[in-house]
Amino acid sequence: MADAAHRILELAEHALSSPFPLRVRAWDGSEAGPPGAPVLVLRRRRALRRLLWRPGELGLARAWVAGDLDVDGDLYAALDLLSGLFWDRDEPDAPASAARTLRRAAGVLRDPDSYRLVRRALSLAGAGLPPAPPPEELRRRTGIAHTKRRDKAAIAHHYDVGNDFYALVLGPSMVYSCALWPAEDTTLEQAQWAKLDLVCRKLGLREGMRLLDVGCGWGSMVLHAATHYGVRATGVTLSTAQAAFARKRVAEAGLTDRIEIRVQDYRDVRDGPYDAISSIGMAEHVGGERYLEYARDLYALLQPGGRLLNHQIGRRPLRDEDAYHVDEFIDRYVFPDGELAPIGVTVARLEEAGFEVRDVEALREHYARTLRAWVGNLEGAWKEAAAATSPGRARVWRLYMAASAVSFERNRIGVNQVLAVRTAPDGRSGLPPTRTGWLS
Questions:
Q1: I want to staple 49 with a disulfide (CB 3.0 to 4.6 A). Which of 40, 125, 128, 359 is the partner?
Q2: Which residue ranges of the chain lie beneath pLDDT 50?
Q3: What sequence ranges are listed for the domain Polyketide synthase-like methyltransferase (predicted)?
Q4: 253 within 8 A of 218, measured Cβ to Cβ
Q5: What is the pLDDT of residue 47?
Q6: Which CATH number does 148-439 carry?
């Protein structure tokens, strides 16, 4: 049994019909694979059982979250190599993925070579039922997706992990969305300040205006807008933990007369009209079936001439599928019921709701750098972060953020700020004639 790595590599390369790009280290200490490549470490036989019972992305994620599998070396390089096998499977003209190939190898036993290798793999992995998923996995959901009750439960799964954990990852800004990096030496705090200020300038905020921040998180946007632009701001979130943290920050800043934080669904906001609405990193939770309703609700809450800044992650268009896409790992471990759509779909829905879209700015590379900064924070405070939530949950976030950084860098997903306006009945937008004018 001192050659487990060689046998695992043989199985993988047969399933892929090509060389496996990572080096493999097994629980028996054996290693095999290309020298100098990042090392995929199978700490326990259970890691192989997870991959055999659920080939592809979900089996890999379960092994990672449970601590059965790790990477020795450059995590980003390893994920980039693995992404071609697992996460690129739906891209146009992509080769057959490892997920499909491994399922075929496990299920189609008429091929003598596949039959022999699968039997060897099962023997190597050890007998037993499928390992139970790690406790961090969200396995049971009831009801129709994107109802108010189910959305609240989904938000709690993601955002009520713990304010102490998020403080370690996000840093003092407590901003959980793409930052804006104007220079190489910009710090994370400076980059988040620059992003918030860009949103304020695009919205044309001025003293005395009313701002609604949908999905306000820990209150950073409303605090920035009230402090630097003199607005009266309302922030809504479904997370009770976020709301408690945001209210404390508002009180400490002496801005309770200017800022209100509510635990409230955006569909229940009825105190418009507002002069401006910001929605930063929230629309990914809305869902394809509800997106037009979301856009119409925000349109109704704006006064004529009011602006919406919709900051949202999008994905590349794919063939032969619905406009909205759900990732299996992210759906079970990170953002339950989250859906990504191409930017063209988002713009079309906003305009269908009545908005005039005036500007779209892509910030894809900025999000990759933001995620790398968050991963660095997490790794630098690993013991504290694991203690603040759980080791499994910390592993979820490390995998999710590092894999997302690679996806942004490889242009598999992007992030866009869409500036839209509710024009007046006579067609006037109230916007300056050029982009430079509304950024000054």
A1: 125
A2: 1, 89-110, 320
A3: 165-420
A4: no
A5: 92
A6: 3.40.50.150
